[in-house]
Each structure stands twice: as structure tokens, then as C-alpha cells.
Amino acid sequence: AKASKEITRSAVLPQITGAASRTTTQQPSGGGTSSGMTSASSAKRKPPTVYEYNISGQQLLFDGFKTSYDLSTAERNIRASQYNYDVTSSNVRVGLRTAYANLLIAQELLTVSEEIEARRRQNLALVKLRYEGGREHKGSLATSEADLAQAVYDVDQARRAIYAAQRQLTKELGRRKFVPIKATGDLEPKSTDSQMPDFEKLAETNPLLRQLIEKKEAAMFGLKSAYASFFPQIYTLGSLGNTNTTWPPDKNQWSAGASLTLPIFDGGNLIASASKAKATLGQNEADERSGRDSVIFTLSDTWIKLEDAIENVSVQRQYLEAAKERARISEAEYAIGLLIYDNWIIIENNLVVAKRSFLSAELNALTAEANWIQAKGGTLDYDEK
């Protein structure tokens, strides 16, 4: 975009060219000759050669401000490209953040799955002991064995999930070679936007909306440039050089003047170009209005989802603490025969569900935070503190 602006700017600067030439012209032979001597002399005569070099230039004086409008268009296109760069940076950031969160959660899931496997193994040992003592039936033992098999499978699945998350993060980092990665950090969102912000005001700094605004303004100047094409173009012209039939040429020649060109009829090209520019402006104005509504909605929607996700983490934490306490009590009651297997295993399963639900809530909160920052236009340079 910057290079395009410089190309446009070159039209208002002097245009200077240099040229050199060597031209040999063969004269056509005449009719019959009056004597053999004259004929021989003509045959030996060399064709005339002309040497010439010159430098010429022209300077634009007036073009109906078309070039000025084109420069303004190019400047808006540069700004639009800068905002597009920020949009791309924001998209890269949310991809990186999401991949990082997935790996962090996958690592935590493995830890939780291993804890569940250890607990299922402990539960099976307790049920087997009661079964061998005649205080538990075979169905309870089979269920406990199946629960352990599920827990072992979940551990293996969690390990594979870590590998998949490592691959995803490697892709987002743009690394050519895969190397196992370990994510470090906590699972708590860092966003502090607890009060509902002014979404309309926040949208004004969104790079996607700013890009659409710059495109609209570029189209506006493009329309003015199209109208300016109907005006005449005025140039000053000049050249200086030497020419002669000998080298180096020593006959000086120069010229100076001005030119004016005015479009009279071009098959309707200028009128069609103006109509196209006007339609482009209308399209960009509609894109801006639509983009503004979309950005405001996305901001409000992602903020609401972030607040919901953060509150859900707190709720799921309470459920998890309650499930841990119930499991601790029920395990003791089952061991001494105060609780039957059917009731005890429900409480144990609730603990497993609570652990996974809490982990899922943390992942949703981290993802919601990443989407909220993207909606605000946060780039790779965004400071989370």
C-alpha cells in the first residue's frame, strides 16, 4: 500500500527521460544514368548517418486535483492496511491463546484422570474385599472393574489429547519441526472487565471497524478522482539535445512549451468509471454500517459469555468441593457398612463428573477471555495485566 502511494505521488513530480540514437537512411536509387562514371560514383556513395542525443521532461501543472485525490485514496489505503495488519495480529493471538489454553487444560486433565484412576483402583480394592467377605454381590464388583477400565482409558485418552494439543500449539507458533511442549501458568482468566463497558465507544477503536472506515474514505476520494478525470490536464514540456551527421553531434537543439489535453469522447469510459466509483462508495458505506453493528454485537456477546464463564467457574468449584466432601464421608460409611454400594457409587461418580465439569468450566473461561480480547482488537502486543 505504501508503494502504491509512491507510484501515485510520482505523477506530480517532473518526468525526465534521456535518449540517444544513430540512424542510417538508405536513399532509393534513381532511374537511368547519363554516363558510366556518374553511375559508379553513386554506387560508392555511403548512406547518410545521423547521430542524436537529448534529454526531455514534463511537469504536471493541473489535472483537476485528480492526483491529489488519488494520493488521499492511497493514504487511506495505507491506514486500512495497517488496521488489517492489526486484525491479522489479533487473529493470530486468539489462535495462540486458544492453543495454549487447550494444552494447559489437557495437561491438567491428565492429572485429574490419573487421580480418578487411582481412586477407582482404591474403590475396586474395597469392593473386592467386601465381596470376598460375602458382604457385596458380583454385580458391584463387575461395575467397579468397569469403572477402573474406563478410568485407565481416560488416562490414555488424556495423554493423546496432550499430544494433539502440542501439535496444535506447534502449528500456531509456526514451527517447522515438532518438539514436545509443556505449557506453564494458571487456569484463571486475567480479564478485569467486570463492569459492563460502553460497547459503542469500545467499537470505535476496533481495528476491523477502523479498516472499514478507512476503506469508505478511500472510496470517497476515489469518486472525487473519477469526477476530476473530466477536467483538462496541463503540462509544461521541454527538451535539450544535440544532433549531426558526425560523432559526437554538435548542433544544439532545444524546445519548450506547454500542452493541454481535454477529454471529448472516449466511448463513455469516464462516465462509466464515475458510476463505478459511486457504486463502490455506496458499497463501502454499507459495509461500514454493517461492520459497526457486527462489532458492537460481537463485543457485547463475547463480554456476556466471558462473565458467564467466570461465574460458572466459581459455581463448579463449589460443586467440586461439595462432591469431595460427600465422597470422603460416603467412603467411610461404605467401608463400615452404613452405606450400600448403589448409593456410594453414585456419589463417587458425581465426584468424577464434578472434577471434569470444573476443568471444562476453566477451559471455557480461558477461551471466552481470548475471544473477548480479540473482539476488543487485542493484538500480539496486548498487555493482559
Task: Please outline the helices and strands.
Elements: H1 2-9, E1 15-24, H2 36-44, E2 49-62, H3 66-132, H4 138-173, H5 199-203, H6 207-228, E3 233-244, E4 251-261, H7 269-335, H8 341-375
Antiparallel strand pairs: 1-2, 2-3, 3-4
Helix pairs in contact: 1-3, 3-4, 3-6, 3-8, 6-7, 7-8
Any low-confidence stretches, pLDDT <50, length ≥5?
none
Strand content: 5-15%
How many beta strands in the DSSP annotation? 4
Distance between the termini: 34 Å
For the biggest sheet, the summary is:
4 strands, antiparallel
Kindly describe this structure:
- The protein has 385 residues and is an alpha+beta fold.
- Helix content is 65%, strand content 12%.
- The chain has helices at 2-9, 36-44, 66-132, 138-173, 199-203, 207-228, 269-335, 341-375; strands at residues 15-24, 49-62, 233-244, 251-261.
- A 4-stranded antiparallel beta sheet has the order 1-2-3-4, with no helix packed on it.
- Helix 3 runs antiparallel to helix 6 (207-228).
Short description, anyone?
The protein has helices at residues 2-9, 36-44, 66-132, 138-173, 199-203, 207-228, 269-335, 341-375, and strands at 15-24, 49-62, 233-244, 251-261. Helix 3 (66-132) packs antiparallel against helix 6 (207-228) and helix 3 packs antiparallel against helix 8.
Task: List the keywords.
65% helix; 12% strand; 4 strands; four-stranded antiparallel beta sheet; alpha+beta; elongated; 385 residues
